[in-house]
Amino acid sequence: MIEPIQIIISVLTLLGLGGIVGGYITYLLDKKKEREFKVLEQKEKRYKSCLLYMDAFFEPKNIKYLSSRQPDIDNAQDVIEYLKMEYHEMMLYASKEVIFSVKAFIENPTHEKFLRTILTMRQDLSKLKNDLDLNDIQIEFQESRQRKT
Length: 149
Description:
Layout: H1 2-58, H2 63-67, H3 76-90, H4 96-107, H5 111-126, H6 134-137, H7 142-148
């Protein structure tokens, strides 16, 4: 008679401990997921900002849109300086590939490097196989049209 009672008590004890351990593991996984979401959210925000600076470098008329955020941006050199600040901040959270891509753009800004940076950021944010390449997103820019005429 004592044996079945001990088994029942042991089972109930295990279930209680299992519930506590399971609850703790769920808590840790939720915290990890929340942290990953915040990092992804930060990346999206910073990457968008970085792309706006890059775009304004090529399209000076778009500087006025940055001026509402940064009133002291007047020309392409100011844009590059702000982009450098973004670059230094992104070293905390961006992938190695994104950091190198932005660095290459800062050192020698070209439309191709701009588009490559977009693709690199896209891959970093989605973690999926790269479904686009440079030819897919390449468009004829204003300066290219002006050279042809």
